[in-house]
Amino acid sequence: MIELELPYPPSANHYYRHVGPRVLISREGRRYREMVNALVRQKNIRPLPGGIALYAAFRPPDRRRRDLDNVGGKVLLDTLQAAGLFKDDCQIKRILLEMGEPVEGGRCLVRLEEMMSMPPPKQYILSGKAGENIP
């Protein structure tokens, strides 16, 4: 399990910028990535293998209205991947995002856990009669 307290992320509108047909990470987005990378390096965290469950609690810096998916979606996943916490954001199999009350400066509490594998479904062998299941 990995737990981190991160700065509040920029919104997707400020993290990315469009230059012609290309989508680039903005100066603000690069600055945020660098802060998160530095925090992860300090803690010497190894990437999680396999499926991952992500829990993130956002505490905005003020009471302005914000869309949760605008800060907790692609921005957070791309930043955590760039910091080396997992190899590919397709490893994220479960996400729980929460917007809490504002705190001075804002912050984002993140927990990543390896997903436990689910037991395989019960296997049935079909007998000679159509549709008769034998456990």
Automatic annotation (TrEMBL):
Cofactor(s), by name: Mg(2+)
Enzyme Commission designation: 3.1.21.10
UniProt keyword Zinc-finger present: no
Biological processes, Gene Ontology terms: DNA recombination; DNA repair
Catalyzed chemical reaction(s): Endonucleolytic cleavage at a junction such as a reciprocal single-stranded crossover between two homologous DNA duplexes (Holliday junction)
UniProt keyword terms in alphabetical order: DNA damage, DNA recombination, DNA repair, Endonuclease, Hydrolase, Magnesium, Metal-binding, Nuclease
Protein name: Crossover junction endodeoxyribonuclease RusA
Source organism (scientific name): bioreactor metagenome
Organism lineage: unclassified sequences, metagenomes, ecological metagenomes
